[in-house]
Amino acid sequence: MKRRESPNQPSPDELLRIAEELDLTALRDALGNLLAHAEQGSPSYTDFALSLLRTEWNARQERKLARGLKRSRLGTVEGIEGFDFAARPELEPRVVKELLNCRFIEEKRNVICVGRPGLGKTRIAKSIAHAACLRGYSTLFAVTAEMLEDIHASLADGTFKCALRRYTKPTLLALDEFGYEAFDRQMATHLFRVVRARHDVGATIVTANTGFSKWVSFFPSEAESIATVDRIVDRATILRFTGKTFRNPRDVHGAPLD
């Protein structure tokens, strides 16, 4: 005579169904292996429950990190492994490595990378921003001119507040090539709004090719320069990049030009 199963008897099919309905997709996909491992190893109830929850939690953390990296717009990140600090005599490796711990983000302070083109400012800025992503901070990397153009373009279609929020909301904003182009009055106003909104609220990384004494020339007036730059520099960590450029041509053909 066939034994009749109790309606309350659990089954793998029911576990799969519940995992599906609760949107525990990682747990659903790994359930077979987890059950087989439990049958062979006889873990404690606590260990088995933890293995179920950790499977889903780890998968969600990985998806969250992937989304954060995508939204950050960092692109390719070389990292500081292999970075030639010896070629940058004014740059202290311990300071850069400390910034990778992201304490400055918790302190809502800025980091300013200053030096001529080709010295590795963007690489270091991206490395710090990438470390922030790995620690779960919302991060956005943008070329300064492109950010201002984006905000300005939003005036035409009525999405200005949304565009401004895009750059003020992230916990860390990394602005590359600050001052590469001079700011007209409207662009200077957009920049001031971003900087003012982030001051003492979020952290910002800035890379610039010129020293602070020349920043006033980027703005239409000295007053606008002071209002913006003072907030950027306030309590900031400044990294000075000196030395020879990392950038060199691959091939050189023909006689040198006079």
Poorly predicted parts: 1-5
β-strand percent reads: 5-15%
Mean pLDDT: 88
Helix count, DSSP H or I runs of 4 or more residues: 10
- Broad shape: elongated
What would CATH call the class of the largest domain?
Answer: Alpha Beta
Q: Quickly give the structural class.
A: alpha/beta
Topology:
Blueprint: H1 12-21, H2 25-41, H3 45-72, H4 93-99, H5 103-106, E1 111-115, H6 121-134, E2 139-143, H7 144-157, H8 160-168, E3 172-178, H9 185-198, E4 203-208, H10 222-233, E5 237-241
Structure at a glance:
The chain is 50% helix and 11% strand.
Characterize the structure shown:
It is built from ten helices and five strands; from the N terminus they run αααααβαβααβαβαβ. The chain is α/β, with parallel strands linked by helices and 258 residues long. The chain has two domains: 12-71, no CATH class; 85-241, 3-Layer(aba) Sandwich (Rossmann fold). The longest helix is centred in the first third of the chain and has 28 residues, at 45-72. It is elongated.
Top keywords for this entry?
Rossmann fold, disordered N terminus, 2 domains, 10 helices, five-stranded parallel β-sheet
